[in-house]
Specification:
272 residues; 7-stranded mixed beta sheet; YojJ-like (1; 11 helices; alpha+beta
């Protein structure tokens, strides 16, 4: 066995290594772009379907295996349609050179500064009863929704966010989506929740906040235009009547990568 491995390694040339590295790089970048969209959930579904097909064949479940094989054929035919936005985006980024850009992650110090800016902005917006809807992207990418708005790409600051939501300005209507420390887009369209049990007092902003949090693991901050109330939506649930400090303390564990429910966040906020 060792001799076979040595024989294989002896045939590997520098060109082969370069070839493997290039392919690995493009696979990684393709996955990175997939991760920034809801298509990653579809990819996981395809993997589960493939595993189920292999397991059913190994166990001799002929009928199930036949059904799964036919399903795989249909899925493969439908893939270009399902992944059309991602394929188009990949070609656009390749043409613009965006395929080779690095992702930027916030450090712990930058995160604290970032939360300070968010709390300052929401405090001013709430005090002046200026409606706002701010979405913070986490692991599930929101590129599909970013493309519905006006591309910005500016660094997050309290002044910048306040100016975006000033009434009668071009970008005030709709949601702001933030990725890392940058405002990716403003005026974005979000899906509304179908939950009919919600309080009738909740308007479109709150329903959009809950709706997007049902479809992704994002965190959404809402400022009511009528009451100036600050609310936070996460995992399809809504936490209301926050102030700037409690908002910051509530957001912190989520930005630290902790998986928490609204109940956990209430407990976290009470202990902070």
């Amino acid at each position: 066995m060792l001799l076979q491995i040595r024989g294989i390694l002896a045939t590997v040339t520098l060109l082969d290594i370069v070839d493997i590295v290039i392919v690995a790089f493009f696979l990684y970048k393709s996955y990175s772009m997939m991760k920034d969209t809801r298509a990653v959930a579809l990819l996981k579904g395809l993997i589960v379907l493939l595993i189920a097909t292999l397991v059913s064949k190994w166990l001799g479940l002929n009928v199930i295996n036949w059904v799964l094989q036919k399903s795989m054929t249909v899925v493969l035919v439908a893939l270009p349609v399902v992944f059309q936005p991602e394929l188009r985006r990949a070609l656009e980024q390749l043409g613009r050179g965006g395929f080779f850009r690095k992702n930027i992650f916030l450090s712990a110090e930058e995160t604290e500064s970032f939360l300070d800016e968010i709390s300052k902005a929401t405090s001013v917006l709430a005090k002046n009863k200026i409606g706002a809807l701010v979405v913070f992207e986490r692991e599930t990418g929101l590129t599909d929704y970013i493309e519905t708005g006006i591309k910005v790409g500016g660094l997050v600051s309290s002044e910048f966010l306040i100016n975006i939501f000033i009434p009668n300005t071009p970008m005030h209507d709709g949601a702001v989506i933030i990725r890392g420390d940058r405002v990716m887009a403003a005026g974005c369209l979000l899906p509304l929740t179908d939950d009919r049990t919600l309080n009738k007092e909740l308007g479109t902003r709150h329903r959009a906040a809950i709706g997007i949090s049902e479809q992704a693991d994002c965190v959404v901050v809402v400022v009511s235009e009528e009451t100036g109330t600050i609310s936070l939506a996460h995992a399809g649930q809504l936490m209301r009547h926050l102030d700037a400090d409690s908002l910051k303390n509530t957001l912190r564990p989520l930005f630290l990568g902790k998986t928490m429910t609204i109940g956990d966040l209430f407990n976290w906020r009470a202990s902070s």
